[in-house]
């Protein structure tokens, strides 16, 4: 009996034929950027450790940061940080019951993407 | 327990919003700072208090987030518990290494 009932239950959307919406893509992106940022946390003890080694090691770190490829990664990190931070604020507003309507959640979603891109562009210009 | 997790995740997020903006702006200006500038900033009393509180909050926020993701995607109970505990241990180690490195800067 259970098996028959289970077979009639509605299926979750199949990812292969599922049309992604802005809201669902942003939700999974929040988690994805969160995982990237968690991995980047390794840089915090590393940064303090390099400083503890002395000025010559710190100067090497600064020169590495000036490298073209490192800068390129840094721009990506700026986008990831900004996106996770702004989308996190969007989540905090939802938690207090604000902006939950479909119209508002799309509006805040577009706002988060636009502001993240603008902030990244600003720092690309600023750092060059 | 789940309510505590939810509340801690939100509370840490609220603390981190201004802290991350400040840290990011400081870090993006790092090439304009000298080594001694940074050492005096991170070894000053407000600097130490800021680093300890913010890094603790940051590692906690990350640990809670990773735990949520593992709860959702690892379906085997014992595997899930193993990886959540592993993640927690790694986060604690990273926080301790941060504190030890900070004390090494202060000692040097």
Just give the CATH class of chain A. Answer: Mainly Alpha
**How large is the radius of gyration of chain A?**
21 Å
CATH architecture of chain A: Up-down Bundle
The CATH architecture assignment of chain B turns out to be Up-down Bundle
CATH fold naming of chain B: 3 helical TM bundles of succinate and fumarate reductases
Q: Structural class from helices and strands of chain A?
A: mainly alpha
Q: How far apart are the first and last residues' alpha carbons of chain A, in Å?
A: 68 Å
Shape of chain B: elongated
What is the count of helical runs of chain A?
6
Count of discrete structural domains of chain B: 1
Low-confidence runs of chain B? none
CATH superfamily of chain A: Fumarate reductase/succinate dehydrogenase, transmembrane subunit
What is the number of independent domains of chain A? 1
Amino-to-carboxy terminus distance of chain B: 42 Å
| Top-tier CATH class of chain B | Mainly Alpha
Strand tally of chain B is 0
Percent of residues in beta strands of chain A: under 5%
Describe the secondary-structure layout.
The complex is a heterodimer of chains A (128) and B (108).
Chain A: H1 2-8, H2 22-40, H3 43-53, H4 55-65, H5 68-95, H6 102-126
Helix pairs in contact in A: 2-5, 5-6
Chain B: H1 2-28, H2 35-43, H3 45-73, H4 77-107
Helix pairs in contact in B: 1-3, 3-4
Report on the architecture of this protein.
The complex is a heterodimer of chains A (128) and B (108). By secondary structure, chain A is mostly helical. Chain A has helices at residues 2-8, 22-40, 43-53, 55-65, 68-95, 102-126. The mean pLDDT of chain A is 91. Chain B is an all-alpha fold and 108 residues long. Chain B has a single domain (2-107), classed as 3 helical TM bundles of succinate and fumarate reductases (Up-down Bundle), CATH 1.20.1300. Chain B is built from four helices and no strands. Chain B has helices at 2-28, 35-43, 45-73, 77-107. In chain B, α1 packs across α3 (45-73) and α3 (45-73) packs antiparallel against α4. The model of chain B has no long low-confidence stretch (mean pLDDT 95). Chains A and B meet through α2, α3, α4 and α5 of A and α1, α2, α3 and α4 of B.
């Amino acid at each position: 009996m259970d098996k028959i009932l289970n077979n009639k239950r509605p299926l979750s959307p199949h990812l292969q034929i599922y049309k992604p919406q802005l809201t669902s893509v942003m939700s999974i992106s929040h988690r994805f950027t969160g995982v990237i940022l968690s991995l980047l946390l390794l840089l915090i003890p590393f940064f303090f450790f390099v400083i503890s080694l002395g000025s010559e090691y710190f100067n090497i770190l600064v020169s590495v940061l000036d490298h073209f490829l490192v800068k390129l990664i840094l721009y990506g990190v700026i986008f990831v940080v900004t996106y996770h931070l702004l989308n996190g604020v969007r989540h905090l507003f939802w938690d207090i019951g604000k902006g939950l309507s479909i119209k508002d959640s799309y509006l805040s979603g577009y706002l988060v993407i636009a502001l993240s891109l603008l902030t990244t562009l600003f720092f690309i210009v600023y750092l060059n | 327990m789940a309510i505590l997790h939810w509340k801690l995740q939100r509370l840490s997020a609220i603390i981190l919003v201004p802290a991350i903006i400040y840290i990011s702006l400081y870090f993006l200006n790092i090439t304009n700072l000298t080594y001694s500038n940074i050492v005096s900033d991170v070894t000053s009393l407000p600097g130490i208090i800021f680093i300890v509180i913010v890094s603790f909050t940051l590692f906690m926020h990350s640990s809670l987030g990773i735990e949520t993701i593992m709860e959702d995607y690892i379906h085997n109970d014992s595997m899930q518990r193993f990886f959540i505990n592993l993640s927690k241990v790694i986060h604690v180690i990273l926080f301790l290494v941060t504190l030890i490195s900070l004390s090494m800067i202060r000692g040097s």
